Amino acid sequence: MNDRLVILPDDNRDGVADRAVTFAKVHNPTDFEFWNGGVIVASAPDILFLKDTDGDDVADVRIRLFGSIDSSDTHHAANNFSMVLMVARIFKAAYFWSIMSKRRG
Ligand SMILES: [Ca+2]
Ligand SMILES: [Ca+2]
């Protein structure tokens, strides 16, 4: 697992990133959305909440909000978060596709 969420600070404010800070290692993140001082990340089969609590730009909190999201068909991967309501839609879609996958065998 080498996938990461990275912060690219522009220390001298010239519009160009000066360094890269690994916020968190996350397997195959397909989307993220800032929320409640942290980040909600889609990382099938999970939806994670990550947060830095001590100001070093590295996530200290890692909470699994949802799980069991099917990742067998990448066309239906959790992505395109736009608001908190999207999480509910993803959960329902994941549940629907999980049911359909079981029916197909
Ligand atoms: Ca810079
Ligand atoms: Ca930290």
Structure description:
This protein has 105 residues and is α+β, with helices and mostly antiparallel strands. The protein has one domain. It is 20% helix and 30% strand. It is built from one helix and six strands, in the order ββββββα. It has a four-stranded antiparallel beta sheet, covered by helices on one side. A two-stranded antiparallel sheet has the order 1-2. Strand 4 and strand 5 (46-51) form a beta hairpin. The longest helix has 21 residues, at 84-104. The two termini are 29 Å apart. The relative contact order is 0.16. The model has no long low-confidence stretch (mean pLDDT 81). Bound molecules: calcium ion (2 copies). Residues 52, 54, 56, 58, 60 line the site of one calcium ion (CA). The site of one calcium ion has 6 residues, from loops.
